[in-house]
Amino acid sequence: MTELETARSAIEVQKLTIRRGKSKVLHELDFTVAAGSVTGLLGPSGSGKTTLLRAIVGVQKITGGRVTVLGLPAGAVALRAQIGYVTQQPSVYGDLTIRQNAHYFARIQGSGIAAADETVRDVGLADLADRLVDSLSGGQRARVSLACALLARPAVLVLDEPTVGLDPVLRRDLWQQFHALAAAGTTLLVSSHVMDEADRCDRLLLLREGRLLADETPADLRAATDAENLEEAFLRLILARDITSETRKVLA
């Protein structure tokens, strides 16, 4: 990798391997995520997406390899104010209202009350701001978590399936917001198992069984597989990998 490429990479993953017991969860992954981009991490449930995101954020013990974020080892103290992480399970207080959660996290992060209220509006929750989080739907709670993560104005935003349970209009609005954040310089890594969200990304990382099947732009992936859509492209990649694996077994 050249110095220029390194400067443009917000996240670098090199030979990343993670084991749980005797089983490998991730198999020597290599990729970079460009600064100021929206990169999609796609794959079926159980493919290792959440484990990979945890490794990037620095809360997952790794077996081998290296993960670097903004030029520092993942988990470095200096990165805590630079990374926003929205987990699948909302990490906000259920006995507080949306507004109270936003104001609380704003005070911790020094963002200000006005910024908190604006962020709540940005995620489409202004009309519900005085509702207790425990009374919200799963999708609404996820948006509260997103609002609180955005308050720190992180340089890197890691989102674990943020659109699960949202209706098409809200999903569209959130993706528009993701691209607006990227245009302003934030680097976003967004996991999903919904293939129709893949076309909304600048680049795609496709995982299956802990292995990286592709690291391409949506257009390049369709062209490489001669597929009309990305779901078909993903299926063709899986079939090609399975055929190759079976051929190796026969020749071994």
Structure notes:
This protein has helices at 3-8, 49-57, 98-109, 113-122, 138-150, 168-183, 218-225, 230-251; strands spanning 9-20, 23-34, 38-42, 64-69, 72-73, 83-86, 156-160, 187-192, 203-208, 211-216. It has 252 residues and is of the alpha/beta class. It has one domain (3-82, 154-251): Rossmann fold (3-Layer(aba) Sandwich), CATH 3.40.50. The strands form two sheets. It has a six-stranded mixed β-sheet, sandwiched between helices. Strands 2-1-4-5 form a four-stranded antiparallel β-sheet. Helix 3 (98-109) crosses helix 4, helix 3 (98-109) runs parallel beside helix 5 and helix 7 (218-225) packs across helix 8. The two termini are 34 Å apart.
The CATH architecture can be given as 3-Layer(aba) Sandwich
Number of domains: 1
Oligomer: single chain
Could you tell me the radius of gyration in angstroms? Answer: 19 Å
Give the uncertain stretches in residue-range form. Answer: 1-7, 246-251
> Quick one: biggest sheet?
6 strands, mixed
User: What average pLDDT do the residues reach?
Assistant: 88
Class computed from helices, strands and strand pairing:
alpha/beta
The helix content is 25-40%
What's the total number of strands?
10
